[in-house]
Structures are given as C-alpha cells and as structure tokens.
Amino acid sequence: MGLEFYNATLVDNQSVYNPKMDYIRIYCGYSIPEYSERYPSKNILFEFLDRFKKMTRNGTKIVFDASAEAENFGIVFNEVGNFDFLDWLLEYSEINNFSKNQIELWTSDFDCKKNINEKYKNLIVGINQMRNFVPYADDFKFIESRKFDRKFICAMSRITRERTSMYEFIINKKIEESFYYSYNAKILTPNKDDSEVIKVPMERYLGIDFDDSMRAEFATYRFQKKSVINIVMETFFYSYDELGRENPSRFFTEKTFRPIAMVQPFILVSNYGMLNRLKSFGFKTFDKWWDESYDLIENDNDRLNKIFELISELNKLSIEELNNIYLEMIPILKYNYNHLLNDVGNEFYEFHTEYTFNKLARLEMDALFYIDNI
C-alpha cells in the first residue's frame, strides 16, 4: 500500500506531513481558539501531540493551521476563554526540548505579533495562503485584446455595512448597467439577519441558477475579463464593529489578489491605509490615473464617501475612454502580476507562497499513516 497524498483541501483536524519543508500541518478550520476547545485538558492535548513524537524528536515542526482567516488571537482567545491551550503548547515544547518555533500557529493576521501577549509571540505566525484561492489570467499574453462591456465589477457575497452601502449606491445612482455586481449571494450560508434581504448572484448575467458550491476560485473570473475596474470589497472596512469593539486592520484576502492575478486595476474598499500597505509589499497602484487619497482618510464613513465620489467620476468616462486608460496601465498591471506570481512570497513572510500545498513539489501525505510506516 502506497503513501496517501493530499491536495490543499483538508478536513478539520486532519494532519499531513510535508517532507520537503519538514512540518506536520494540522488543519484547524478558520479559528485556532475554537479548534482548541477540543482539548479540555493538558493530558488530552499532550496525548494528541505525542502521536507525532517519532518525527518531532528529530526536529520536525508542528503547525496548527488556520491561515485561511485572520482572527485576532488576543480577542478570540479571550472570548473562548482558553489561553490554557497556548500555555500547554509552551509547556509541551519545554518538556520535549523543542527548538524555538518548532510549534507554530498560523493565521492571516499581519498584526498577529501585536495582537497577542509577549509570552506567546514565538507561537504565532502570519501566513497568507492567497494563492490557493486565486486563478491567474489565461489571456495574460493577449490582454491588449480584451473586449470590455462593463466599466466595473463588484463582488459582494456576504452582507456587511459597507457592502450594503455600496449596493445602495449602485441602485440609487442608477448605474447598474456600468457594473457586474453581486450582493448577498452566499445562499447556502445566509447571515441570520438577512433572510428577507434580496439576493443578487453574479450568475444572473449568464441566465443560470446560482450554485454556492461552484463559486470559490472562479466566482468572478469570466466577468473580470469583461470589466475594466475591480471594486474590491475586502472582508474588513470599519475600525469598530457594530458593538463598538475595535477592529484593527488585519490582512489581505484573495479578494485583493483576484484583480492582480487577472491583470486588472482596482479600487480597494478596505481598512484605512491598506492600499499603502499593499504598496509596501512592492505592488504598484493607479494614482497616475485617478485619485487614491481615499486610502488615507481615517474616518471610515468619509473614506467610503470618497470612494463613491471616485466611482462616480470614473463612471462619467465611456468604456472606450476607460479602455484607453487600461492600455496605458498595462506595464504596471503586468508588473503586479509577475510580482504576485514570482516575488512576493519569497520576499515577505506574510505571503509565504512556499506554503502553497498543491504544487507538485510540495505534495503532502497523511502524517499518521507516514509515521506508522517508518
């Protein structure tokens, strides 16, 4: 019987071994604090970790992976009330003479080191697995020949305050014909408070039924190729949530990298300063062609209104005029594409594309099956 190999899609608590990078990765879903609740005692956790001893005693790293989301560990562990889990991991490391960072907890929160007590900083690592979710342009060599029939694309699957404002802006300004857009389209897992709210899936442009199971990587692909500018509605926008709790800037999701991978200019609807942060990672943006000062407006409502003003100004241009602007942008768009594909994961730890699990050279195998057979 041969070793069992896996691609990037794991089930909850599944562990896989990566021989090239010498780690055992344990999939924790979207939340390590919530995952930690399965270990109500130190003995149960230690018994689980001992299953990997044949590897870890030789230096193999253990990774608890929740890098698909960017939770603030300090906030969520307080909510869950289980800092014991982190203390037990530190104790286990000490008992077994682990090297520094031999146990890691992965999250997409870029500020994870700031958002956790000093005591736990060596455990927490910012890893963004963006390339698992982003399809790259199939027409990269021929983008000069793209045929645009809409000015903008704006994908909004879940309801948030800023997305509702964007949807109402599109409707109230009567500019639907300038957009490909969706709103509240995540039908299989609707927000509990939006059951009566209209659902507007992107599939309506194709005259086909919505299928949530098919949205994932290629949800907006074909519409991006036919629209000039991507209005990126990131996961977070407001500095405080509706309960008044601070919501610090955290991470870029695949939403930001979809237009970059599709060689498409974008307007970033996100936390204060996130466009500037993107530039700090070596990407170039579009202030030569439009006003990007919205990014540095600290007041969230003012920033959103500035974005609405920008969209309104750009909408005054014809598709032909926007197409000419697009042609002028091509050197920057191609630079960003290549930077995403080839550079950013090697230069910046937050974008560790070495951790893309479905590359041929980095296929993972079931960890326990491997250990049982060595």
Structural features, described:
The structure is a single chain. The two termini are 13 Å apart. This protein is α/β, with parallel strands linked by helices and 374 residues long. Mean pLDDT is 86; it is low at 1-8 and 356-361. The strands form two sheets. A seven-stranded mixed β-sheet has the order 1-11-2-3-4-5-6. Strands 8-7-9-10 form a four-stranded parallel β-sheet, sandwiched between helices. The chain is elongated. It has two domains: 5-127 and 352-372, no CATH class; 140-343, Rossmann fold, CATH 3.40.50. The protein contains twelve helices and eleven strands.
Topology (SSEs and partners):
Blueprint: E1 5-6, E2 15-18, E3 23-27, H1 32-35, H2 42-50, H3 53-56, E4 61-65, H4 73-80, H5 84-95, E5 103-107, E6 124-126, E7 150-154, H6 161-172, E8 179-181, H7 221-224, E9 227-233, H8 254-261, E10 266-269, H9 274-280, H10 300-315, H11 319-347, E11 364-366, H12 367-372
Parallel strand pairs: 3-4, 4-5, 5-6, 7-8, 7-9, 9-10
Antiparallel strand pairs: 1-11, 2-3, 2-11
Would you kindly provide a brief summary of this structure?
This protein has 374 residues and is α/β, with parallel strands linked by helices.
